[in-house]
Structures are given as C-alpha cells and as structure tokens.
Design a protein that fits this description.
about 210 residues, alpha/beta, Rossmann fold, nine-stranded mixed sheet, 7 helices, globular, Crinkler_effector
C-alpha cells in the first residue's frame, strides 16, 4: 500500500500528537483544486464555494505574481539538482505566504509521482495540515504527527514563518521574512539554498 494511503488512519500517533481528518471545507478545497485555473489577467480562481485552506477569510482568488512562476521553476530545477532545502525570503507584505497556497495548487495539477504528500506548517499557533495525493486532508496540532511523511524524501514540507526541522528527509521550503533567527541555521544545512522574492512593482499593483 502506498505511504499516503496509510496516512488516513485517524488518530495515528507520532511524538505524542494525533492526526485526524480535517474539515469538510478544506477537503473540498483540496479535492477541487485541480479544477482551479489561472485567468488571462493572471488570477488563480478556485472552484465555486471553495476557499484557500477551506477558510472564507482567505478568499477564493489570488493574483499570481510573475515572481511566483519564476520561483516555482527554480524550485523544480533545484529539486532535480539534489537541493532539498530552500529558503524563500523577502520583505514583509509581498505575498510570501500566499505563494505557499499557489505552490499547493501547482502540485495538485501534477499527475502521479512525487510528492506523495504536502505538509503545511504555518506556525506553533496554527493547525498543521497534510494534503494527501488520494484527495484527503489530515490535520494536527503539531508537525510531529506527520513524522512518517516528513521523513520521506517524496514529501514536500512547507514551513511558513518559523524555524523548520533541520534534518527532515522531506523536501523542505521555508517561507519567511528576512529575520535571520528563523532561517540562518537552516540555510547552512547541506543541500540548502536561498531565493529572494522581490517587492511588488507598479504594474502588479495596478493589476490588483
């Protein structure tokens, strides 16, 4: 049985944390994400009545900045070159966290193969989500609940705004402000590199 298939066992334990099925809303978001597309004017629009991460406060539409596309190209190229740890940083307010949602959409458009799972860790005060290739979503209060995935090189781990694990086998993307206390040690690990996301330009601001 594939690794992701076993992950839906509700209440699985790892490091004292339990993973359980996520809400119907976020499962619907993930399940219908393949139906989402980018309009001619550059907006990623979700299927009707679905919201990013299942939360109406996140909206159902985002502007796909040109740097998002370029960074995704770099991510895929770096993975192919053996890089397994990537820091994406830049000034506050330029859409780094939203880029993480775009990245999840990119993965959902792919066919079979890596990644088997995406673990999204947005900080100690937020729920950690695990998006499985079979279309279901798990949640937990700690990343430790998904150790079986983060120890798998065919998992993508997206960490937003706080320190990531240094030795996870998963391909790890840290999205963060320039605060060196968050990313400096991580970027010194073997197989790590840094990319910078530029500020919005006037054309992008006018498009929104």
């Amino acid at each position: 049985m594939a690794a992701w298939a076993t992950g839906m066992q509700a209440g699985m334990q790892a490091g004292g944390a339990a993973a359980v099925p996520a809400s119907a809303a976020i499962n619907e978001f993930w399940g219908k994400l393949r139906d989402a597309g980018i309009s001619e004017d550059g907006f990623l629009q979700l299927a009707p009545d679905t919201y990013f991460l299942g939360d109406p406060l996140n909206g159902s539409c985002l502007f796909v900045r040109e740097p998002y596309r370029k960074v995704v190209e770099q991510v895929l190229h770096l993975w192919s070159q053996g890089i397994t740890k990537l820091v994406i940083t830049g000034s506050p307010g330029i859409g780094k966290s939203v880029f993480g949602w775009y990245l999840i959409w990119v993965v959902r458009q792919q066919g079979d193969g890596c990644p088997n799972a995406i673990v999204l860790d947005q900080g100690p005060d937020d729920v950690v989500f695990c998006f499985l290739r079979d279309g279901r979503v798990l949640k937990a209060t700690s990343r430790a609940a998904f150790e079986q995935y983060t120890s798998d090189a065919c998992t993508w781990l997206i960490v937003d705004g706080h320190k990531p694990p240094l030795k996870a086998a998963a391909k790890t993307i840290l999205i963060t402000s320039p605060d060196r206390t968050i990313w400096w040690q991580f970027h010194k690990e073997r197989g790590a590199t840094v990319r910078y996301m530029p500020a919005w330009n006037m054309a992008e601001l006018e498009a929104c």
